[in-house]
TrEMBL record:
Pfam families: S-Me-THD_C, S-Me-THD_N
InterPro entries (alphabetical): S-Me-THD-like_C (IPR048350), S-Me-THD_C_sf (IPR024071), S-Me-THD_N (IPR010318), S-Me-THD_N_sf (IPR027479)
Protein name: DUF917 domain-containing protein
Organism whose genome encodes this protein: Pontivivens marinum
Superkingdom assignment: Bacteria
Gene3D superfamilies: CV3147-like (2.40.390.10), CV3147-like domain (3.40.1610.10)
Domain S-Me-THD-like C-terminal: 167-355
Residues covered by the S-Me-THD N-terminal domain: 9-164
């Protein structure tokens, strides 16, 4: 069922996207400001269910690609993504009829609302990950045979590149190089698909889930409660640990923010030490001895232990206290095809994937 998103909804959407974004997807504050300005200028955005889209409608995901840390200093104007979409439409010889959110992540959950407001196009209630992943090919669209190209990558200087590739992995490799040359981050229109294919490949209902998670964060904070427990109850998640950051190793390499956190447990976890590895997103949580607690593609989500707000990888700093939760990924990610795309082995972690279950930690 279709509904309208106004400026007042964006706070919840940004928070929900940041939580499900597992530390990645870009700073939600930047995307929220971009979407708020566009809605103020053009009016509210209509979110529609996938089954409301005609089978022959051109559906296009729009998103940011690159290192989220770059976006803290290199703010997009919004013109880049509109240019990318327009050039993709020109190449295809067809106008888009609906937009898609490629991932549940802070900036990438709100950018599509900005584009939808500016173009008047509806935004489909769903995404291609149900979380955020660092590489472009790591979407359910790939599992369903939908090509990422033709795609257009655009930057803040007015440059754009139209790409056609032999596979989605090659799109990632080549577009990542372009994004690095564009300053470390770029705006993208890619994975053009018709409505029939979209309905098969999309993870349905995630935009509504993002909004509901954000509203839960807001309501729990208003009631002076930390939202962690309520969010875990909503998502079937479990409490991994709460700890204080005692070391942050982080570098922007090859268009990614890569690094490792070391946390010392507090409260019920006092006396324990934990490691969290990330590549834009949190991908692996371990004990100090290297025993895995939770791993990709399941979600490792972080909240500030004091304020109850989502924390992204670029916000992590020495002395911060953080509550980590684990949430099971969509079942598609637990299949051989899903694990090939985004399992621990792909990222070079020497662990066989083991799904997280709520019985492991409470």
């Amino acid at each position: 069922m279709a509904y309208q998103v106004t400026q007042s909804d964006l706070e919840a959407i940004a928070l929900g996207g940041a939580f499900l974004g597992t530390g990645g997807g870009g700073d939600p504050y930047i995307g929220k400001l971009m979407a708020r300005q566009a809605i103020a200028e053009h009016g509210p955005v209509t979110v529609i269910a996938a089954d409301e889209v005609a089978d022959d409608t051109l559906c296009v995901p729009v998103f940011m690609m690159g290192a989220p840390t770059v976006m803290l200093e290199k703010l997009p104007s919004g013109d880049e993504i509109l240019k990318a979409l327009a050039e993709l439409e020109t190449f295809l010889g067809k106008k888009a009829g609906a937009l898609i959110c490629v991932e549940a992540g802070g900036l990438n959950s709100t950018i599509p609302f900005m584009v939808a407001a500016a173009t008047g196009l509806p935004l489909i209630d769903g995404d291609g990950m149900g979380r955020a992943f660092p590489e472009l090919q790591m979407v359910t669209f790939t599992m369903h045979g939908i090509a990422s190209s033709p795609m257009v990558v655009a930057d803040d200087k007015g440059n754009s590149a139209l790409m056609s590739t032999i596979s989605n992995l090659w799109t990632e490799r080549l577009a990542r190089v372009v994004a690095v040359q564009m300053g470390g981050a770029a705006l993208v229109a890619a994975f053009p698909m018709n409505g029939a294919d979209m309905k098969k490949a999309l993870l349905h209902g995630t935009m509504t889930t993002i909004r509901d998670i954000g509203n839960t964060i807001l309501s729990e904070r208003k009631a002076s409660r930390h939202p962690g427990a309520a969010l875990r109850a909503m998502t079937g998640g479990a409490h991994l640990f709460t700890g204080r950051v005692v070391d942050v190793q982080r570098a922007t390499e090859g268009g990614f923010a890569r690094g490792k956190l070391t946390l010392r447990g507090i409260d019920d976890f006092a006396g324990q030490e934990f490691l969290v590895h990330f590549q834009n997103e949190f991908l692996l949580a371990e004990t100090a001895t290297g025993a895995p607690i939770c791993m990709t593609p399941d979600l490792i989500c972080a909240l500030d232990a004091d304020m109850g707000l989502p924390v992204t990888t670029e916000q992590m700093r020495y002395g911060m206290t953080v509550e980590f939760s684990a949430i099971p990924a969509d079942p598609q990610w637990h299949t051989p095809a899903g694990l090939e795309l985004a399992g621990p082995k792909y990222f070079g972690y020497d662990h066989e994937f083991r799904p997280f279950t709520t019985g492991e930690r409470a």
